[in-house]
Specification:
about 240 residues, alpha+beta, Aminopeptidase, seven-stranded mixed sheet, 7 strands, globular
Length: about 240
């Protein structure tokens, strides 16, 4: 991922507006994903299309956000979310593409007590500017309003290819302990997510060697008679 100096990052962050995604921005949202993942409209492998973004609006409109550069009305970041049932005692996520209904979000469960963080991406020119964090905060605000238990997500460990001599369990443990910085996992942990279990074949991605890590963020404001605590990652005995 590209990085920016502090000053340009501050200028760009100040000019960004976080707002609910709407159907009229769907073409820009598809273009953004291609810019982030190096795909094209002619070969949109596992990339959300305009039609898919409009489908997301049908299933769970309150869970979709975009970051817009105010001066140009340009979409420079987005998040896609859905609701799902999830059991902390048996934590599991299916492969990413199938878990999203092959991109259409048809797997959204309206009565699900958890938000599933399906996708989050920021244009390369706007990374390290706090845009991703603002988008995540918008998600947190929604799940608090809906009184959901928290958020689950699969974090592709995109720096794993640099340390592939390690087992995935040892790699995640090193990231947890701060001995290795993972460009994705470390940032999610900074936002309060806790890693639970590795997910083989979660994504088709050479950087992560296909591995994801199931992450959980517990809603501290969740109202219930008994609020369960998320289990902790242990390399020796992952849950």
């Amino acid at each position: 991922m590209s990085t920016l100096t502090d000053e340009p990052a501050r200028q760009k962050r100040d000019g960004i507006r976080i707002q609910p995604a709407t159907a009229n921005y769907a073409p820009q949202m598809e273009d953004l994903m291609h810019a982030c993942y190096g795909t094209t409209r002619q070969d949109p492998f596992h990339i959300f299309t305009e039609a898919m973004f409009r489908s997301h609006q049908h299933y769970f409109p309150e869970g979709q956000f975009i970051a817009v550069e105010q001066a140009t009305d340009r979409v420079v970041g987005l998040t896609v979310s859905m609701r799902k049932h999830f059991n902390l005692r048996m934590p599991h996520l299916d492969e990413w593409w199938s878990s999203t209904g092959n991109g259409w979000l048809s797997t959204h469960q309206p009565g699900g007590e958890w938000m599933y963080g399906v996708e989050s991406c920021v244009h390369p020119d706007f990374r390290s500017a706090g845009v991703g964090g603002q988008l995540m905060d918008a998600r947190f605000a929604v799940l608090r309003r809906l009184n959901l238990r928290g958020m689950v997500a699969g974090s592709a460990i995109i720096s794993y290819y640099q340390h592939k001599a390690l087992s995935v369990e040892d790699y995640v443990q090193a990231v947890v302990e701060g001995r290795i910085f993972d460009q994705n996992l470390s940032k999610q942990m900074k936002k309060g997510f806790k890693p639970l279990v590795p997910i083989p074949d979660y994504v088709d991605d050479w950087e992560s060697l296909g591995w994801g890590v199931l992450m959980v963020w517990m809603n501290p404001d969740y109202r219930a008679s008994q609020n369960r605590q998320a289990p902790k990652w242990t390399a020796a005995h992952p849950i």
